[in-house]
């Protein structure tokens, strides 16, 4: 039996597309020009059974408009673009490509830490402009304390690399107690305890209502003048106005941010654009050929498994109650 699959992007990497084509699926795409309007029109008018989600948000109304829809599979790990409650109400599982891009994002997190600690973008810009400015000294990471907020696959990958260069690593997550001993990483009892003891803080928590602005003025006040804050999770985890103020006043050493609350930020809208000692990038942590291929393949595997009624990976479904409702 073939299935009708809608990809919310103009293309899907060959590793994922091949799986769909070999299964006899009819695959539709959403053009860059059409964007969200085209996505919603196709959901409302085509007999779509599975969606492979890339960059466009999918609202509860869009989900409700497609009576044939049975599964939404993210070619990514985050799921804040999806109205999960709306999908759950319809008994539609929302699946993520958990683990598929973990190494790429972990490496990017380390890259941001190094870029900020050693002032690499600043030195590059000055030297490219014909200067030879050597006044701002950097920070050596060996012996410094890395605090991980969240301890999933990405954070665990970063922990391994940080330990290899001689950092001391701690982690905080509300679910960390279930893991038991995580040596040589140390479990922190609370977010505030982690922040107070860390020289470098890297955010890897999912975006949720409870996590919005989890790093605000009170949390930033716990960091020292040589502290570095890195975020490859979601922009909404940080109160950006509070962080910009701390950076302008020199109360922490710097920040490396791959994600912002609004992406891309409208001109003049984000106080972190132009903030001192801040490295910004356009949500590229998973932007490697390996990660893109792996997430596309995982998304295709998951959508096919769900439509065929096969067992899904335990940690791929973000709303397992939808599976019970559908059953």
Automatic annotation (TrEMBL):
Q: Which UniProt keywords apply?
A: NAD, Oxidoreductase
One Pfam family from the UniProt entry? 2-Hacid_dh_C
According to the lineage, what is the superkingdom?
Bacteria
InterPro entries associated with the record: D-2-hydroxyacid_DH, D-isomer_2_OHA_DH_cat_dom, D-isomer_DH_CS, D-isomer_DH_NAD-bd, NAD(P)-bd_dom_sf
Q: Which residues belong to any copy of the D-isomer specific 2-hydroxyacid dehydrogenase NAD-binding domain?
A: 110-285
> Which ranges carry the D-isomer specific 2-hydroxyacid dehydrogenase catalytic domain?
6-313
Question: What family does the database annotate?
Answer: Belongs to the D-isomer specific 2-hydroxyacid dehydrogenase family.
Q: What is this protein called?
A: Hydroxyacid dehydrogenase
What species is given as this protein's source?
A: Falsiroseomonas frigidaquae
Lineage of this protein's species? Bacteria, Pseudomonadati, Pseudomonadota, Alphaproteobacteria, Acetobacterales
């Amino acid at each position: 039996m073939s299935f009708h699959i809608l990809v919310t992007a103009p293309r899907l990497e060959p590793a994922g597309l091949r799986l769909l084509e070999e299964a006899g699926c009819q695959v539709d795409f959403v053009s860059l020009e059409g964007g969200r309007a085209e996505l919603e029109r196709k959901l409302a008018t085509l007999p779509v059974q599975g969606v492979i989600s890339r960059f466009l948000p999918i609202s509860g109304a869009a989900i409700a408009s497609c009576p044939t829809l049975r599964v939404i599979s993210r070619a990514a790990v985050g799921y804040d673009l999806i109205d999960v409650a709306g999908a759950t109400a319809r008994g539609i599982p929302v699946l993520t490509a958990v683990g598929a891009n973990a190494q790429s994002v972990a490496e990017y997190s380390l890259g941001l830490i190094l870029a900020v600690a050693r002032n690499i973008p600043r030195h590059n810009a000055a030297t490219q402009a014909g200067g030879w400015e050597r006044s701002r000294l950097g920070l050596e990471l060996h012996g410094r304390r890395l605090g991980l907020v969240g301890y999933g696959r990405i954070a665990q990958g970063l922990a391994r690399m940080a330990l290899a260069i001689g950092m001391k690593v701690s982690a905080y997550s509300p679910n960390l107690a279930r893991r038991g001993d995580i040596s040589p990483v140390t479990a922190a009892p609370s977010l505030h305890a982690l922040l107070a003891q860390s020289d470098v803080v890297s955010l890897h928590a999912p975006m949720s209502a409870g996590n919005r602005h989890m790093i605000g003025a009170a949390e930033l006040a716990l960091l020292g003048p040589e502290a570095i804050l890195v975020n490859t999770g979601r922009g909404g985890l940080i109160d950006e106005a509070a962080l910009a103020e701390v950076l302008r006043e020199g109360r922490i050493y710097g920040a490396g941010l791959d994600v912002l609350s609004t992406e891309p930020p409208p001109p003049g809208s984000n106080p972190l654009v132009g903030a001192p000692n801040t490295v910004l990038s356009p949500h590229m942590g998973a932007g490697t050929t390996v990660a893109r291929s792996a997430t596309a393949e995982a998304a295709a595997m998951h959508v096919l498994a769900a439509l065929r009624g096969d067992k899904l990976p335990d940690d791929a479904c973000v709303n397992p109650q939808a599976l019970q409702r559908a059953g």
